[in-house]
Write a structure and sequence with these properties.
It is a single chain. By secondary structure, the chain is of the alpha/beta class. 22% of the residues lie in helices and 18% in strands. It folds into three domains: 360 residues, Glycosidases (TIM Barrel, Alpha-Beta Barrel), CATH 3.20.20; 60 residues, Oligo-1,6-glucosidase, domain 2 (Alpha-Beta Complex); 79 residues, Immunoglobulin-like (Sandwich). It contains eleven helices and 18 strands. An eight-stranded parallel sheet has the order 11-10-9-8-5-2-1-12. Strands 13, 14, 15, 16, 17 and 18 form a six-stranded antiparallel sheet that branches. It has a two-stranded antiparallel ribbon with strand order 3-4. Helix 9 runs parallel beside helix 11. The protein is globular, with a radius of gyration of 24 Å. The structure holds 1-deoxynojirimycin. 1-deoxynojirimycin (NOJ) binds next to loops. The site of 1-deoxynojirimycin (NOJ) has 9 residues, from loops.
């Protein structure tokens, strides 16, 4: 097993990320689609918010069968977003403001339009024949155990190809961990053609890192090597990638879509999102019960803890969380995002107070927080979506950023019908300009919470975490974050009921200082603590 240095780039320990869906952020040339020069124009806003790193969804050439998660040229920015020179300028302008830009690396599959795939489709053998997973005959039975299935009869090559997600996303060939000797088309992980694919992935990464990128969010990171129990062979590949980074780009970060930080961090990633329980159960911590089915997700937990009904169970989440924190300590980070382009928005069914509480939770938890664009102003999930570029129900979370009261919410000067997706049509849709002017807006409260986090090592990624009151099916949730002598207690009661919690003080007699929140009353007498909380209230106390 390759040796992994446990040190992460230092900037990660205080970073707060902002996720930008480039189509929908800001349209600088009035063609109805967001673009890179538009992002450059808005960098000062991201700085004003307090974020210092960006995850940019895919911005490369693509036929957009899955909104850009089907790349047809890894080395070229899609025309609709600008040019490579624009992206380079984004890196430079971001750097001037101390903002890092991480790109989306989508290398588990390509688009069917990728020239490698077109070559691979040919009946004659060529350099790319083995770059994708093909069986050995159109009429041969296919392996049922490949998760996303096969496409039959696509081209003149007499074989079926394996998918990695949609029908137009053929899986790149990272080999089989346990190839079946009766199926010689299942290549070993050290087959020269498999090695060539892997080498190319490193080339792509170096290309953008050399240009000024600060790292990558890796799409479907665990879905590379097939028949790979425990993702062992897949992890081995990422550890090689990490070695390359440690050696040549020690400040660059690798963030995974893996959903198991314990596995992902030991595979060499620096950060992994905690957004799924496991590969089958999609559990979105902030999804409200009555809106649970927006994306038709399955879940084993009927209610979110952050739901007024007060029927959630934070303990299951915390159990997973503390286990991952323990397993990854000193090696990498968990991440609790506000949401992303695949989830419902936290804004579904929540008022400002409830949204602020979600942010207060995220900004006081360990790991690296990610804010999905627009969540900081409470953008809503738009329900009357029409599908675009394979988005389906996800489109409700991908609508244009709302900047001001003008046409198209200030996103674009194009006619409304030309927009990538229609803007939220609600009369009172929130926007940046209005919220900037209002001291008590969600935007300004989020800014304060980010500032509090950034000024407090105890609240940042590495501060230690101790649950003080976290009980199955009970409210509130109370925990402590600490770093040396700095200690905070954070308490949350998202439920509509008044609640009280008694717990033991970890630090003895102290006088709490209310830093943020409302409606809480924390009393510490000796080793005994008592907290009384109003319905829908939270508090952050400095000890
Ligand atoms: C995960 C991405 O976040 C999602 O948007 C995409 O559709 C799939 N991976 C396939 O690349």
């Amino acid at each position: 097993m390759a040796h992994i240095k446990s040190n992460c780039p230092k900037w990660l320990s205080t970073a707060v990320f902002y996720q930008i869906y480039p189509q929908s952020f800001y349209d600088s040339n009035s063609d109805g689609i967001g673009d890179i020069p538009g992002i450059i124009e808005k960098l000062d806003y991201i700085k004003f918010l307090g974020c210092d790193a960006i995850w940019l969804n895919p911005c490369f050439e693509s036929p957009f069968g899955d909104a850009g998660y089907d790349v047809s040229d890894y080395y070229r920015v899609a025309k609709r977003y600008g040019t490579n020179a624009d992206l380079k300028r984004l890196f430079r302008e971001a750097d001037k403001r101390n903002i890092k830009i991480c790109l989306d690396l989508v290398v588990a599959h390509t688009s069917i339009e990728h020239p490698w795939f077109k070559q691979s489709c040919k009946a004659e053998k060529n350099k790319y024949s083995n770059w994708y997973i093909w069986n050995d005959g159109t009429y041969k039975p296919v392996d049922k155990d490949l998760r996303f299935g096969w496409i039959r009869g696509y081209c003149n090559r007499d074989a079926n190809f394996a998918l990695n997600y949609y029908w137009c996303q053929p899986a790149l060939n990272y080999g089989f961990a346990q190839p079946d000797s009766k199926k010689p088309w299942q290549l070993r992980v050290d087959h020269p053609d498999v090695k060539a694919v892997r080498k190319e992935v490193m080339n792509i990464m170096s290309f953008w890192l050399d240009m000024g990128a600060s790292g990558f969010r890796v799409d479907m990171a665990r879905s590379l090597v097939k028949h790979d129990p425990g993702y062992k062979a897949t992890s081995q590949f990422w550890r090689q990638v990490r070695q390359m980074l440690d050696k040549d780009y020690p400040n660059a970060v690798l963030i995974s879509e893996w959903s198991c930080p314990t596995q992902a961090i030991s595979a060499g990633f620096h950060v992994d999102f905690m957004i799924q329980i496991n590969e089958k159960v999609y559990n979105y911590l902030f999804r409200m019960e009555k809106h649970r089915d927006v994306l038709g997700e399955s879940t084993d937990e009927g209610y979110s803890f952050f739901d007024k009904q007060g029927k959630g169970d934070i303990q299951k989440f915390l159990d997973r969380c503390t286990e991952h924190l323990r397993n990854t300590k000193g090696k990498g980070y968990i991440s609790i995002p506000t949401g992303n382009h695949d989830t419902g928005r936290i804004g579904i069914g929540r008022n400002q107070k409830e949204l602020e509480m979600v942010f207060a939770f995220i900004m006081t938890m360990p790991g690296v927080p990610f804010i999905y664009y627009g969540d900081e102003i409470g953008m809503r999930y738009v329900r009357n979506w029409v599908s675009k570029e394979g988005g389906y129900a996800r489109n409700g979370s991908r609508t244009p950023m709302q900047w001001n009261d003008s046409k198209n919410a200030g996103f674009s000067k194009a006619p409304a019908l030309k927009l990538y997706l229609p803007a939220d049509s609600a009369k009172n849709r929130p926007n940046v300009e209005k919220q900037t002017a209002n001291q008590n807006s969600l935007l300004n409260r989020v800014r304060q919470l980010i500032r509090l986090r950034k000024n407090s090592p105890a609240l940042c990624a590495d501060g230690s975490f101790t649950a003080l009151y976290a009980k199955s099916k009970k409210y509130p949730l109370v925990y402590m974050r600490s770093d040396g002598n700095q200690r905070y207690i954070a308490a949350f009661n998202p439920s509509k009921y008044k609640v009280r919690a008694d717990f033991t003080s970890p630090v003895g007699k102290t006088i709490p200082e209310l830093k943020a929140g409302w409606g809480t009353d924390l009393k510490i007498q000796g080793r005994k603590c008592k907290i009384d909380m109003n319905a829908v209230s939270y508090g952050i106390f400095k000890l």
